[in-house]
Amino acid sequence: MITTTYTVSGMTCGHCVAAVQEELGRLEGVADVDVDLVSGGLSAVRVNSAAPLDVDRVREAVAEAGYELTGTGE
């Protein structure tokens, strides 16, 4: 299992967290999505997946939820 942490801006509440978790959870190979919400700031989103994810697909999923992927990490 690979864990990658992304930063996402624009989330302010539990509904935001659920929307991001739902969209990222639809990506092939994603096993789990955990969000550390920072209301109005940059939230850390940890994604556990079977293989590395294409950052553009992650960006699209986050955008579909209504938020912006602002950074990627390890």
Q: Can you give a write-up of this model?
A:
- With 74 residues, this protein is α+β, with helices and mostly antiparallel strands.
- It has a single domain, classed as Alpha-Beta Plaits (2-Layer Sandwich), CATH 3.30.70.100.
- It has 2 helices and 4 strands, in the order βαββαβ.
- The chain has a 4-stranded antiparallel beta sheet, with helices on one face.
- Strand 2 and strand 3 (42-49) form a beta hairpin.
- Helix 1 crosses helix 2.
- The longest helix has 12 residues, at 14-25.
- It is globular.
Blueprint of the fold:
Blueprint: E1 2-9, H1 14-25, E2 30-36, E3 42-49, H2 55-65, E4 68-72
Antiparallel strand pairs: 1-3, 1-4, 2-3
Helix pairs in contact: 1-2
List keywords for this structure.
single chain, 38% strand, 74 residues, 2 helices, four-stranded antiparallel sheet, Alpha-Beta Plaits, alpha+beta
Describe the structure concisely.
This protein has a single domain (2-72), classed as 2-Layer Sandwich (Alpha-Beta Plaits).
Shape: globular
Helix percent band: 25-40%
Could you please say which CATH topology applies here?
Answer: Alpha-Beta Plaits
The major sheet is characterized as: 4 strands, antiparallel
Biggest sheet: strand arrangement: 2-3-1-4
CATH arch. level architecture: 2-Layer Sandwich
Please write the CATH class name: Alpha Beta
pLDDT averaged over residues: 95
Q: Span between N and C termini?
A: 13 Å
Cα-atom radius of gyration: 11 Å
Regions with pLDDT < 50 over 5+ consecutive residues?
Answer: none
SS-based structural class? alpha+beta
Total beta-strand segments: 4
- String of helices and strands: EHEEHE
Provide a count of the helices.
2
Summed up, the domain count is 1
Hey, roughly how much beta strand do the residues contain? 35-45%
